[in-house]
Amino acid sequence: MIDMVSGNIFHCRKHSWPSEEYISRATLQLLDFDSAAPPRQAWRRRLNSHANILKEFSVTFMEALKMMRLGVRLWSYVREEASHGRRAPIDPFTRESCKPSASQGVPLGGMGSGSISRGFRGEFRHMQIVPGICETSPVMANQFSIFISRDGGNKKFSSVLAPGQHEGLGKLGDQGISSWNWNLSGQHSTYHAVFPRAWTIYDGEPDPDLKVSCRQISPFIPHNYEDSSLPSAVFVYTLVNTGKERAKVSLLFTWANSIGGNSHLSGGHVNEPFRGEDGVSGVLLHHKTAKGNPPVTFAVAACETQNVNVTVSPCFGLTDQNRVTAKSIWDTMAEDGSFDLGNFNAGSSVPSLPGETHCAAVSASAWVEPHGKCTVAFSLAWSSPKVKFLKGNTYNRRYTKFYGTSERSAAHIVHDSLMNYKWWEEEIEKWQNPILSDDSLPDWYKFTLFNELYFLVSGGTIWIDGHSPARDNQSTMSQNGHNSRIEEPTKIEVTAATVHSKGDVVIEHESCINGFEDANGNGNGLNLDQENSDEENAEGHNPLQLSTLVDQKPDDSEDVGRFLYLEGVEYVMWCTYDVHFYASYALLALFPKIELSIQRDFAKAVLSEDRRKVKFLADGNCGIRKVKGAVPHDLGTHDPWHEMNAYNIHDTSKWKDLNPKFVLQVYRDFAATGDMSFAVDVWPAVCAAMEYMEQFDKDGDGLIENDGFPDQTYDAWTVHGISAYCGCLWLAALEAAAAMALRLGDKPFADKFKNMFSRAKSAFEEKLWNGSYFNYDSGSSSNSRSIQADQLAGQWYVASSGLPSLFDDHKIKSALQKIFDFNVMKVRGGRMGAVNGMHPNGKVDESCMQSREIWTGVTYGVAATMILSGMEEQAFTTAEGIFTSGWSEDGFGYWFQTPEGWTVDGHYRSLIYMRPLAIWSMQWALSLPKAILEAPKINMMDRMLYVPIRASHNDAGIVRKVANKTKCFSNSVFHCAC
């Protein structure tokens, strides 16, 4: 049932979470030094909070009936992929054994080197070391524990620093971790999170006279392209003794030789103690991965100081078959508070047998005087220098540029992490404090803004060094005896798309798809100027003459490698572009060089074609994998960059939103960065993308039409004729393309796009504007007059890019107010976000599962559009619905795993999803960059003489024929006379 409450019901909503409600003021004062106390603006939980099991959505009977044929084809495809040992990119039939729960917290590590999440109660889980594989179950041997003894020996305390008995601990009384003391209630312990840091405060647990703060720090530092790639985290314990006796406090960090799941039982794993520089000591855990994946080495370490003593137990097991057991190391710590110093000389352990688990322990002990304070620092790092994709190449991860390709670099990474974490925190605070201290912003927004960035770490990100695969085609042997075979790319024919509209002109290439090599073995990919002779360059006919606009001096600092991130952990496709459209604001704001790198990848992809056949599951028809001129849906799954469009439900070459989204993102990124080199590089792809779309203008009015199937990001929501969503994106793309053409001196193209815009705008408003909002589409279906929350997506982008509004101000505000009044406030009084579709009678559009869903990222995008239109109150109320349902104590428990969306009863679809990063578009709207505010303005309505433009359709339908090859472009921007 839909709550039809109208009006503002938020009179008693909590705008902030005062830390005093979770920690006593006295404890906060005691910890108010060395960043040990959490900031006032933080997301908070008590450790004894119940982590309820999350509820997944289900389709209705009618939806299941409509999708039956798709379901059968998808089931068959999933089974076929499984028979080849591969995971299908979309698999709704296989469920994890560990049911998702409301237990997540801030993940560990930087970007692109694998990730490990840590729940708010302390468990380490969701390991994603191997690309595309997420092991969700917690590894319960991975724990921090504490042992406390007071002078005189009268008081002793010991406990794992995680509350209660967890599922999977096994039977009490065994030799494993069930023998440890799991007696922390969590009633007086709290978790505080502002990504990339988290604080756990133990306020007198387990010792009433000891205050403990554990601060978790990861190297996620905006505009830092080195440290932000490191696979490491630091845990800083601050100990405050409020008792009358001196206390010996020993902290224990235990870690299993595992990458999640049952990997600890596969055998061949080796542990090795080490002593490094500056007092950094610990254990290396060399993990032999299965199925030929590159090996992984973990390093757990602590930093020895004048007051802190570090010892290790390099290898213990979980059964009585092991010489050293989990029970024996616990008993040793409870008795002595440390291990034998001779353990550092133990050398490498014997490789584990199948079915046997190797774990390691690092202890750090210190005496804390009465009313004294002490700091103890641990670090965790993992090194898997090579990333291998199932069907494709092996690459070096980004951090290897700074630490080399040995797995043993984990020891150097933990050392540098322990030496540098204070500087990391300084940089993080410089970035975050201006927003956290801004009293004009609600507190829930501040910490949700930062915490949604968790996805850039735990969203399956891959960051490689450079643009080429690891070139060693021999079997490489690591220092631990693990084999890792590197495969060379397979060559296929690639044909570039038509680039300009005047004349039938194309340039063809043979190379690897989106290539690392061309036909001659050059490693530069699709390099357009290789098709032109030196003589032609001398004549000035090379289209890359635009390069004279930029500084040609090479700059190594500009090479940030290549970056991939998943659509979601359940939708395993890299850099899904229709979703990146929403998420990209976060990368542009914080790591703009990565954002430009992704856009360059897609620009190359636009100009390429992959003729391999693919069966599309929605209709059962076959087509080619990648059409020239079309923006790919994604960069692939098992062979990214070389086998794009892993998505195979629909033929996305017929989608109407991908190409406009590419043009809009390119222009926004160009306007924001002012990077003329980037603009020159991608301009041919922009022209090709725009020209490709002209075939979808069936009646010559300048406006594209949808084709009666879900041909856009709402891939279950059918569209007929002109649509508000795609039509608005197309109008915005015309404006952006015209503006970019003018900036690059391409006046003929600018005039062409201006004329098309004028005609398309008139047709759009005539056919869709109904006096208060734009209809869903121009068809005659039951939902054609629905109010779509995302109807102004194009307006959102032009406003974000400093371009003129697409429509009169009163129309924009009227449509946004309609969305607010209906899609937001008529669903549970505004406490859930904006539902995608709403009928004008106030009932949710239930024509398909997506129309009745609330999409988190879309809601943030709508809120950003409201901010840009001067409707800030409505904007924050709209976005607060996502916080209330997803992040608040009274919500559904989706923190640090924000799904694509949920239904009005709170059932989720697709956890840990890319699109919610769109909350950064709100911050973008609140503080537009100076480059955009000062960018040259374009008047789309000047000199609008109607110039008929011949529609460039052809008999081949949606896939364009390749025209005769020529040597140069005919468009006059390049002054080509041939």
TrEMBL record:
Its EC number is 3.2.1.45. Pfam families: DUF608 (PF04685), Glyco_hydr_116N (PF12215). Keywords: Glycosidase, Hydrolase, Lipid metabolism, Membrane. Residues 105-424 form the Glycosyl-hydrolase family 116 N-terminal domain. GO terms for molecular function: beta-glucosidase activity; glucosylceramidase activity. GO terms for biological process: carbohydrate metabolic process; glucosylceramide catabolic process. It comes from the Eukaryota. Residues 88-108 are annotated as: Disordered. It catalyses: a beta-D-glucosyl-(1<->1')-N-acylsphing-4-enine + H2O = an N-acylsphing-4-enine + D-glucose. The keyword Membrane applies. Gene3D superfamilies: 1.50.10.10. Residues 561-922 form the Glycosyl-hydrolase family 116 catalytic region domain. GO terms for cellular component: membrane. Belongs to the non-lysosomal glucosylceramidase family. Non-lysosomal glucosylceramidase that catalyzes the hydrolysis of glucosylceramide (GlcCer) to free glucose and ceramide. This is Non-lysosomal glucosylceramidase. It comes from Papaver somniferum (Opium poppy).
